[in-house]
Amino acid sequence: TGTGNSVPRYDIPEDAAAIAEISHSGGANFAVWAVDGAGQQTDLLVNTIGNYTGTVLFDESASSHTDAFDVEADGTWTITIKPVTEAFEWDGSEVLTGSGDDVAVLDPAPSGLKSTTLTHSGSGNFAIWAYGPSTDLLVNEIGNFSGEVLLAEGTFLFEITADGPWTIGPPE
């Protein structure tokens, strides 16, 4: 928790993906960078104007380890770090709905040839990364989106970037 620019440090296990629940109350640019032990910015987790509430994934790659965040803010902010296992769990039986940035665990993971329908209502970037035996960018569009995409066998985690409401349909 803080106000304005700051570099909060923390400890998480090496080789462990994590999520950060982040919020900001302000009117100007709000950016959060993941920073490694050498002081290098490694991943831009949030970059927006004004208020923000969302959940982001970090350290999903075995080659990265974050030791701090570089926060640029004009207002108050909070960052709560949790293991990725505490992300929202979705069983895939019904449509998953959300708004803004989020992370969801799909359990059970699909087997065989599957697809899913994605929608987004917004004016900014809409991207979904799917993690499993492979890492796949399912969609990366600006603005509204509606379409069907392939879903790799074994997909167990979604990282959603959105500025508005979105849906992920049941794997079929």
Overview of the molecule:
0% of the residues lie in helices and 56% in strands. The strands form four sheets. It has a five-stranded mixed β-sheet, with no helix packed on it. It has a four-stranded antiparallel β-sheet with strand order 1-7-2-5, with no helix packed on it. A four-stranded antiparallel β-sheet has the order 9-16-11-14, with no helix packed on it. It contains no helices and 16 strands. It is globular, with a radius of gyration of 16 Å. By secondary structure, it is mostly beta strands.
Question: With helices defined by DSSP (H or I, 4 residues minimum), what is the helix count?
Answer: 0
> Which sequence of strands runs across the widest sheet?
8-10-15-12-13
CATH architectural grouping of the largest domain? Sandwich
Specify the helix fraction band.
under 10%
Overall tally of structural domains: 2
Structural category is mainly beta
**What gap, in angstroms, lies between the N and C termini?**
42 Å
Low-confidence runs? none
CATH topology name of the largest domain, in short, is Jelly Rolls
Number of strands: 16
Beta content comes to over 45%
Assign an overall shape.
globular
Q: Which value, in Å, is the CA radius of gyration?
A: 16 Å
Mean pLDDT: 96
Task: Describe the structure in brief.
With about 170 residues, the chain is an all-beta fold.
Task: Lay out the secondary structure.
Layout: E1 2-3, E2 18-25, E3 29-35, E4 41-49, E5 52-58, E6 68-72, E7 76-83, E8 88-90, E9 96-99, E10 102-106, E11 114-120, E12 125-131, E13 135-142, E14 145-151, E15 157-161, E16 165-168
Parallel strand pairs: 8-10
Antiparallel strand pairs: 1-7, 2-5, 2-7, 3-4, 3-6, 9-16, 10-15, 11-14, 11-16, 12-13, 12-15
